[in-house]
Amino acid sequence: NAGVTQTPKFQVLKTGQSMTLQCAQDMNHEYMSWYRQDPGMGLRLIHYSVGAGITDQGEVPNGYNVSRSTTEDFPLRLLSAAPSQTSVYFCASSYGGTSTDTQYFGPGTRLTVL
Amino acid sequence: LAKTTQPISMDSYEGQEVNITCSHNNIATNDYITWYQQFPSQGPRFIIQGYKTKVTNEVASLFIPADRKSSTLSLPRVSLSDTAVYYCLVGDSGAGSYQLTFGKGTKLSVIP
């Protein structure tokens, strides 16, 4: 069991470039989510998915797109990167999306936008 | 909004008991309270979860009063390896749909 994997670990982009952060889990979890973590701000929810084909916005969705074509994968797309998107991004998964379900986090992707 | 509020930081000496309190005034009736630990350059990981009264596992204890508007994570006899950020998590239905939102966390520094 690899758990939750994220690629890449580090990425540097120029303003206006696009990229996709990959997230995959092998635990057959229905619920997956993306958070960004900035100094002093804790973890803020970007988007989440309760199952394949279903996604919804979190606290800070602007500038990000997601899709969920399979149970295993939940990629996060930045269409036109901005310096304000410099952050550490964490993907998480769980059996369900309620407070009783343990969230399993990936190792994170550190993104810098110049 | 079931937002959470925690102290930003705490310092403790090795061997002491540490108590971190989280307030969640608008917690839903059926929501659980979960605490996570995050080391630098890693994703958060589950520590403990509870609904009411007291829960204990091999790592920590969780105290939840009857009104459930707050919870206290207790770490017995901390060591340097307990230096981390601790988050409490409850559900949040304020945006119209149920979401899991973390607070800003409490940075615990254990001093030798």
Which SSEs are present, and which pair or pack?
The complex is a heterodimer of chains A (114) and B (112).
Chain A: E1 4-7, E2 10-13, E3 19-25, E4 31-38, E5 42-51, E6 54-57, E7 64-66, E8 76-78, E9 87-94, E10 104-105, E11 109-113
Parallel strand pairs in A: 2-11
Antiparallel strand pairs in A: 1-3, 3-8, 4-5, 4-9, 5-6, 7-8, 9-10, 9-11
Chain B: E1 9-13, E2 18-23, E3 33-38, E4 45-50, E5 53-56, E6 61-64, E7 70-75, E8 84-92, E9 99-102, E10 106-111
Parallel strand pairs in B: 1-10
Antiparallel strand pairs in B: 2-7, 3-4, 3-8, 5-6, 6-7, 8-9, 8-10
Shape of chain B: globular
| Class of secondary structure makeup of chain A | mainly beta
Low-confidence stretches of chain B: none
Write down how many β-strands of chain A occur, each being a DSSP E stretch of 2 or more residues. Answer: 11
Oligomer: heterodimer
Separate helix tally of chain A: 0
Query: Biggest β-sheet of chain B, characterized?
Result: 6 strands, mixed
Approximately what portion of the residues of chain B adopt beta-strand conformation? over 45%
How helical, in percent, are the residues of chain A? under 10%
Distance N to C terminus of chain A: 36 Å
Task: Label this structure with key terms.
heterodimer, A: 114 residues, mainly beta, 7-stranded mixed sheet, 4-stranded antiparallel sheet, globular, B: mainly beta
How does this structure look, described?
- The complex is a heterodimer of chains A (about 110) and B (about 110).
- By secondary structure, chain A is an all-beta fold.
- Chain A contains no helices and eleven strands.
- The N and C termini of chain A lie far apart (about 35 Å).
- In chain A, about 40% of the residues are buried.
- The mean pLDDT of chain A is about 95.
- With about 110 residues, chain B is mainly β.
- In chain B, the strands form two sheets. In chain B, strands 1, 3, 4, 8, 9 and 10 form a six-stranded mixed sheet that branches. Chain B has a four-stranded antiparallel sheet with strand order 2-7-6-5, with no helix packed on it.
- Chain B starts with 8 loop residues before the first strand and ends with a strand.
- The interface of A and B includes residues 56, 58, 90 and 102 of A.
